[in-house]
Amino acid sequence: GRARVVLSSVRVAPSDTGVAAGDSVAWWAAGFFPDGRSREVTLAAAWTSEDTSVAQVSTGRGRAIRAGTTNIRANVAGLASPPARLTVRPPDLSGLAIAPAETALVAGGGVLYRAEGTLPDGSRRALTGLTWTVADTSVALPSGEGAVLTRRAGETAVRASDGRLTSAPASLRVIQRG
Fold first, then answer.
1. What is residue 127's predicted lDDT score, i.e. its pLDDT?
2. Is the dihedral of CA 1, 40, 55, 15 positive or negative?
3. Is the pTM of the predicted complex or chain greater than 0.70?
4. Residue 4's pLDDT is what?
5. What's the pLDDT at 51?
6. What is the C-alpha to C-alpha distance for residues 86 and 114, in angstroms, rounded to an integer?
7. Which residues does residue 105 pair with via DSSP β-bridges, in sequence order?
8. CB 66 within 8 A of CB 53
9. In the chain, what's the furthest Cα-to-Cα distance?
10. Which of 50, 59, 64, 169 would suit a FRET pair with 108, their CA atoms being 20 to 30 Å apart?
11. Are strands 102-106 and 170-175 parallel, antiparallel or unpaired?
């Protein structure tokens, strides 16, 4: 009879992946033999995620569930691969809106805008950490986290951005006191 050839190691690729929550992920596994040969063992492997609340994986295909980091491993014939790192970021937004849509204030006052993001599945969530801008800074100035302080009479537009999406403008009309 022939001597049975066993694997000497297993590796997973890609070894470092980043995706948005809700995305699908695919890995493949290669088995290496002592004589230098290798072959794909993706379907033969038992797949694990160290944190199943971040991602779940089976037969080399996974689903990113929530933001965080986890290690993915393939196990074949008693050999575990080195970890493949998966970083899951918050889901990408499909929309960004701010409220109130229209505001009229006396010069010297302030208004606090709220931002809401729409996720690809249609659900919505409140957002913070956005960049706020005012079209005419002689009329009003953003002062952080949606707060806008008025300076003089006039009209301007207020917007928020997450770096990828920018909201539709909210209208701000400032009137002079008295």
1. 86
2. positive
3. no
4. 62
5. 97
6. 32
7. 174
8. yes
9. 103
10. 169
11. parallel
Least reliable range by pLDDT among 26-30, 72-76, 83-87, 125-129 = 125-129
Tokens standing for residue 157: 């537009």
In the numeric block, the tokens 């010069």 are attached to 107
d(Cα 111, Cα 114) in Å, to the nearest integer? 10
Determine how many CB atoms are found less than 10 A away from the CB of residue 139.
20
Q: Which of 71, 3, 2, 13 is nearest to 38 (CA)?
A: 13
